[in-house]
Amino acid sequence: MITIALPKGALLQDSIDLFLQIGLDFRAFLDSSNRQLQITEPTQRATAMLVRAQDVPVYVEYGQAQLGIVGYDVLEEKSPQVAQLADLKFGGCRLSVAVPQESPYRRSVELPPHGRVASKFVQCARNYFRQLDLPVEIIPLYGSVELGPITGMSEAIVDLVSTGRTLKENGLVEIDVLFESTAYLIAHPLSYRLNPEGLGEWVQKLRENALCN
Amino acid sequence: MRIHQPPAGTRDLLPLEVAQKRWIADRIQGVFHQWGYQRIITSTLEWVEALTAGGAIHPSTVIQVENTSGGRLGLRPELTASIARAAATRMAGDVFPQRLYYNANVFRRTPGGNHGRQVEFFQTGVELLRAGGTRADREILLLLADCLGSLGLEGCSVILGEASLTRSLLNLFPPSDQGQVRACIAHLDRVGLTRLGLSTELEQLALLLFDLRGEPRTVLQKVSHLNLDQQGQQVVHNLKNLIERVEESASTRLSLILDLSLIQTIDYYTGVVFEVVCVQNQQSRVLGKGGRYDQLLGLYHPQGESAPGIGFALNLEEVYSCLLDSEQLPRSAPKTDWLVIPRDDQAEKAAFDYAQTLRHSEHLVRVELELGGRSPDEIRQYARLCNINRLAWIQADGKPEIEVLENAEY
């Protein structure tokens, strides 16, 4: 039986829909009364485990799950050693630099040297500003990053933006995009090479269905 | 009070674990001996420059020990470089081929922070030097199968690649794209391949190359339809022979997976490359790796003279993990056969003499001497705890009184 790591949160519904299209039903995870972290689909061919998005590549890298679905943003941030097999095209968002509306900065390069940038994406932010040759202090936060500039702790934030509503409601504007992100299908490299239980065929089906959507 | 611990990523092996790992190493060593391989011991410390000369080892993965005026010293992360260095210099005039094996600890640093990940590993492996050709390749693969068989490891898979064939296939791409295509394939980054901006035709070829793995005959069939140069065709021919012969004569069932995407971004392999994988309880472990390196020895030779080589290394920790459920693995540290107890101080010399006599038998007899300070009952209790079932009580005149503990566990 193959094991699949599915991300909690924004990508879950689309991920479950995609697996349903290829005949693997994990809809039990969507039931609000469900507390199970691991379920086997009715045909007994696959098990899915529900984990935090950031942990999906961890389970896949260590081989506890042979397949996983995770945002490209997480792959960029954590650089896990996993096979990146398909861009599934859903869950589109972007990693952006945002500043308060009243801030004088309208491009990343205008930020003051040694200014502060709050982010959950510490590696991505660090690499981005390094490429701009702009020394900044990255402040790692685990959530509600928007509070960084609001409280005056940082000049800017680097965070995921999908509709832009959260930014707007908190008086922030997007000034630059680091990269666009969508959901990716990833695999444990060794399992992908060994191809147990027709893993490759599942991958092929997922890829074809993702292209059709 | 200060607690002294071993450094993160290292550990102590206690007697039972030592007995189990010795059992594994002894089996494998027995097979190496049967195939005519001789042990070589190289230095744990090497010049970092020598370790990284082959290009496959990044200095950041070497634990560096000291920066001297002569250069940087580091702990070896593998043995192939050290053996190639020794073979290309001090052993250069020896007869060939050279069949060498090793059983040693190696050290690897995880770049970018260590969360307690293992840094010291035990490896055993072989290098068959100054021998090219498919017969040597076959010897190494069959020797590997023999090693796994000697441990009772059934159902292992060997993922087999061919570095020169993959190189030939990469030569179908414009030189400016080859590096990126190679990197994407080495990292199994299929999405990356489709983002390189290759022409439709080249992208199709790249994706085909990405998927060139599976049942060997099917894969070779696909490869034969590609526009290979003459050298590439020869390699395909040799590979076909090798696979047939290994499948014919391997005593242990090895399932071979041909995987032409099994490459690194940089490595010293020039021919067959392989990984042995064991899958248990849905957990796959790489037991070992190896391959052919026909340019490596030249890097260490004073005049740059090259010579072919092929070898593999088995990771003893991974082999051990796969054997944990095996009934053959020793379940206890070796037990002592005899406990010799002097009745009093006057009997001490006689007791030592008697113990020595017992030790000098034809087969290994383990004999302990009671060091005193406890009563006969305490001594018997100790013997029972340690599974010692023969007690020899010695009197000053040297006369032994033998007591057999019936209920000692075996």
UniProtKB/TrEMBL annotation, chain B:
<keyword id="KW-0368">Histidine biosynthesis</keyword>
<keyword id="KW-0808">Transferase</keyword>
<dbReference type="GO" id="GO:0016757">
    <property type="term" value="F:glycosyltransferase activity"/>
</dbReference>
<dbReference type="InterPro" id="IPR045864">
    <property type="entry name" value="aa-tRNA-synth_II/BPL/LPL"/>
</dbReference>
<comment type="function">
    <text>Required for the first step of histidine biosynthesis. May allow the feedback regulation of ATP phosphoribosyltransferase activity by histidine.</text>
</comment>
<dbReference type="InterPro" id="IPR004517">
    <property type="entry name" value="HisZ"/>
</dbReference>
<dbReference type="Pfam" id="PF13393">
    <property type="entry name" value="tRNA-synt_His"/>
</dbReference>
<protein>
    <recommendedName>
        <fullName>ATP phosphoribosyltransferase regulatory subunit</fullName>
    </recommendedName>
</protein>
<comment type="subunit">
    <text>Heteromultimer composed of HisG and HisZ subunits.</text>
</comment>
<keyword id="KW-0028">Amino-acid biosynthesis</keyword>
<dbReference type="InterPro" id="IPR004516">
    <property type="entry name" value="HisRS/HisZ"/>
</dbReference>
<keyword id="KW-0328">Glycosyltransferase</keyword>
<comment type="similarity">
    <text>Belongs to the class-II aminoacyl-tRNA synthetase family. HisZ subfamily.</text>
</comment>
<dbReference type="InterPro" id="IPR041715">
    <property type="entry name" value="HisRS-like_core"/>
</dbReference>
<keyword id="KW-0963">Cytoplasm</keyword>
<feature type="domain" description="Class II Histidinyl-tRNA synthetase (HisRS)-like catalytic core">
    <location>
        <begin position="9"/>
        <end position="319"/>
    </location>
</feature>
<comment type="pathway">
    <text>Amino-acid biosynthesis; L-histidine biosynthesis; L-histidine from 5-phospho-alpha-D-ribose 1-diphosphate: step 1/9.</text>
</comment>
